[in-house]
Amino acid sequence: MSRTWVRADLRIEVAYDTDVDCALAVVQATIDQMAQDPEWKALILDTHELFGVD
Predict the structure, then answer these.
(1) Distance CA 16, CA 30 (A)
(2) Please, what is the Cα angle at 47 between 41 and 48, to 5 degrees?
(3) Closest C-alpha among 31, 28, 52 to residue 43
(4) Given a cut of 80, is residue 22 above it in pLDDT?
(5) Each residue's pLDDT tens digit, 33-54
(6) d(Cα 51, Cα 27) in Å, to the nearest integer?
(7) How far apart are CA 12 and CA 28, in angstroms?
């Protein structure tokens, strides 16, 4: 149903005592790396929305 645009909502579980800032930094770094990867580059349009902890 999403012909030209879609949002991916990912739920990544971490241990209760995880350093949240570190975990978010790892997720952001992974997103940034994927956005530069030739296989993913054309598919990732924006990497700026990382909402944080729920």
Answers:
(1) 21
(2) 160
(3) 31
(4) yes
(5) 998 999 988 888 777 777 777 7
(6) 11
(7) 12
